[in-house]
Write a structure and sequence with these properties.
single chain, 455 residues, mainly alpha, 0% strand, globular
Length: 455
């Protein structure tokens, strides 16, 4: 199917305003948690998102430059702060910047909505309150008698009250800043995460330009319902970690390894997932630069963890509880658990397979961003726990790989919300099959297509 440039532009604007309408409808018609409305809104916005991705790819296939007939809404002085070189001008990148503007607008629409499918935000508020009252959330679990005077209505909604904090120190600092801004109300957290997402989208665009990829592919993250709804309805801290992660990728691709090490540490200290790509860094940087990178990373860890070290040296009690016991929405892990009738053995096998996969990727990757994407793909495959919002980390890299399998899982992960919809927390085998059968079939196609392209 071939579209004229005018048709492409009209369809693009139609997609933007249709998405706007769906998110606005969610805000207007929502009552309480309303998980059903959440799932339906996700479904319809993802359909529009997928269609817009098709338009962008079709425009590229037809060699259309959509920016030629699209009005600019930003003054040139703004573009100079985003793009430094003469080549990166506002007129060349009208569509990507408009994509980002709509991405911000979609997030703003959800600014005052309350969580639907997750209650993690109540833990964030609680831990910020604990810190501001001079206590250590890594040492004192929420149900500690020492913290009894802090209990309020939010405390009642905190889950797993017997487990101390699992989130790293940079995440805790983000909680505190958000709490101070709004007095513990949700909008303070959303404001911080909105700033994070704006920075993520801008530097994703800059990274696409740096890697000579289609800048319009910023849409793959900016309009993705998963990142919009999980981070601005359910208010997950991943938005902060992903921002630092994109900054790290951008600056390491610019060969600024010292600054990239700072952002790598901040991403790790927001959520621990980036630790898995450390072996890739050893090959990319070489011994001397890796040593300096590691020293900066270690210094950042000491600086951030030291303030929490004063009451108790064990800062990972909650984290180890999570790693050893948590499981949800897994694929290969559930298969091994079923075959071996042992969750412990399945956990060991998946951990071993993940380590082997990371080592192989570290030794064989040719492009760093693709290598990082491969590691996060292995995390999806071998993880024991895969909440939908975890997919934001690989989603911000998918503009470079464009794996249909990732698109598939971004869409079908919505069905995992049948679990909180039920009276009891229960996973359903049909839901797992709906998610992972298309994923693995398309993953085979993606890998085969990439292999054939290289040869």
């Amino acid at each position: 199917m071939i579209f004229s440039i005018n048709q492409l532009i009209k369809l693009f604007w139609a997609s933007a305003f249709l998405s706007f309408f769906f998110y606005l409808s969610f805000v207007i018609f929502r009552k309480g948690e309303d998980i059903q409305l959440y799932m339906f809104t996700y479904f319809e916005t993802f359909i529009v998102f997928a269609f817009t991705v098709f338009l962008i790819k079709r425009a590229e296939l037809n060699n259309h430059n959509l920016s030629e007939d699209v009005p600019s809404f930003l003054p040139e002085v703004v573009s100079k702060k985003i793009f430094r070189s003469d080549e990166d001008n506002i007129f060349k990148y009208k569509i990507p910047l408009i994509i980002i503007l709509f991405g911000v607008l979609f997030r703003l629409l959800l600014f005052y909505s309350s969580p639907s499918t997750s209650d993690d935000i109540h833990r964030y508020v609680w831990e910020a309150k604990v810190i501001l009252n001079g206590s250590n959330p890594y040492y004192l679990q929420p149900n500690s008698e020492v913290l009894e005077h802090l209990r309020d209505n939010n405390y009642k909604l905190v889950t797993f009250k017997h487990i101390p904090a699992i989130y790293p120190p940079a995440a805790q600092i983000g909680f505190v800043i958000s709490y101070v801004l709004s007095g513990g109300r949700f909008w303070g957290f959303k404001l911080v995460y909105l700033i994070c997402e704006i920075i993520t989208m801008i530097f994703l665009l800059k990274l696409l330009i740096l890697k000579k990829s289609n800048p319009n592919y910023v849409l793959f993250y900016a309009w993705l319902p998963l990142s919009i709804m999980e981070y601005f309805i359910n208010i997950h801290l991943d938005a902060q970690g992903i921002m630092f992660f994109v900054l790290f990728i951008y600056f390491i691709e610019k060969n600024n390894y010292k600054l990239s090490s700072v952002f790598y540490a901040l991403s790790f200290l927001s959520k621990l997932l980036p630790v898995f790509i450390f072996p890739l860094l050893l090959r990319k940087l070489g011994f001397k630069k890796s040593l300096m990178f590691g020293l900066i990373f270690l210094a950042m860890l000491i600086i951030f963890y030291l303030p929490f070290f004063y009451q108790h040296p064990n800062l990972v009690t909650g984290l180890f509880t999570y790693l050893s016991r948590w499981e949800f929405n897994a694929s290969v892990y559930n298969l091994f658990k079923f075959l071996l009738n042992s969750g412990y053995t399945a956990r060991i096998i998946c951990a071993a397979l993940l380590v082997i996969s990371v080592i192989v990727i570290s030794l064989r990757y040719k492009d760093f961003v693709s290598g990082v994407f491969g590691v996060f793909l292995c995390l999806i495959i071998f993880s024991t726990t895969l909440y939908p919002w975890y997919l934001g980390w690989i989603s911000v890299l998918n503009p470079f790989s464009q794996f249909y399998s990732v698109f598939s899982l971004q869409f079908t992960s919505n069905f995992s919300n049948f679990t909180p919809l039920g009276d009891k927390w229960k996973e359903y085998t049909p839901v797992l099959l709906v998610q992972y059968l298309p994923f693995f079939v398309l993953l085979y196609y993606d890998i085969k297509k990439r292999f054939l392209k290289r040869n």
